[in-house]
Amino acid sequence: MNKPESLYIHIPFCSSICDYCDFTKLQFFSFLADSYIESLSKEIEYYQINKKLKTIYIGGGTPSVLSLKQLETIFNVLDEYRNDVIEFTVEINPESINEEKLKLFKKHGVNRISMGVESTNDKILHAIGRKHTFKDVKNAVNLIRKCGFDNLSLDLILGLPNVSISLLKKDLENIIELNPDNVSCYSLTVHENTKFYINGIKEPPSDFLRELYDLTNETLLENGYIHYEISSWGRKNKFGLHNFTYWTNKTYYGLGLGASGYINKTRYKNTKNLNKYLKHQFIDEQEEVTCSDDLTYEIMLNLRTINGLDLTYLKNKFNIDFLNDHKDKIDNFVSKKWLIFDQKNNKLIATYEGMMVLDQIILDLI
User: Fold this and answer.
1) Same domain for 242 and 363?
2) Number of neighbouring beta carbons within 10 Å of residue 295
3) CATH number at residue 117
4) Most buried of 111, 173, 292, 350, CB within 10 angstroms?
5) Strand partners, 67
6) In terms of residue numbers, what domain contains 219?
């Protein structure tokens, strides 16, 4: 069995819960975090993690809410797995990062920071339950650069309540001024059990959301960013490597409360119940991936990215002639300029227009 080369660790703790958030999250209490980290160490032992990992990603929640000592405990456990790591990312929030934590990250091999900005308008930030201001964001970016990090990703949410086209323009201006290496923009999804849902807030209409995406794409392209995945724009050579593990249907370890993983033809989800997790009852659901499922994942995930779907790889893996089997549909999508057939590399690649209707393309192709 080939061991996964990517590791995701979920830290569920937050200093406060944002109104729109549907991730597995808990209010931060130091004693709970101590117990959690102890269980996390046991889970790492349980998997006998590959010592030749290529990417590590610590997400949340808010990993930066942990104390210096708690972060060091996690990093000490991970040190033996990071000798071959190319990209080591930690998610942070602006209000919970400081120079000491950043220096600790650096000491333990972290080389990429992903920061949740969501909006650069203080009134909007307050209205959605964020605890930082745009000034905090600017201060955090300066500190991150001062501490020597040359790979910084910033997140925005598109379609937040009361955000107009002009407000998004200002958001994008502010973000570009900060000169991040990667920008991720996610459209607002309103989930049950969030304050947004309870308060009756609706998702924006799809045509308005499309306007927001178009503006985002045009602005970032004009400023030298490459649109390399549906929700991601990056500088050349600064694309988020860890996420390509997911987008290319590769296996990965998913550890922590509510995390998902994919190992040896099995996709699994961890429990979201903290009591179970602290008793080392980690896995909640498992699904054996059939050959048909695997093909679906290959199509669905690879078409999200600038690299597209490698038809030679599909032929070798599944013994199918995908281009011939779906000729009429593919010709139709190419004529609509939703897909490009790269003859030289034998790949199908979604255009920007294609990415905007990718669900429709995938449903037709599978």
Assistant:
1) no
2) 18
3) 3.20.20.70
4) 350
5) none
6) 6-246
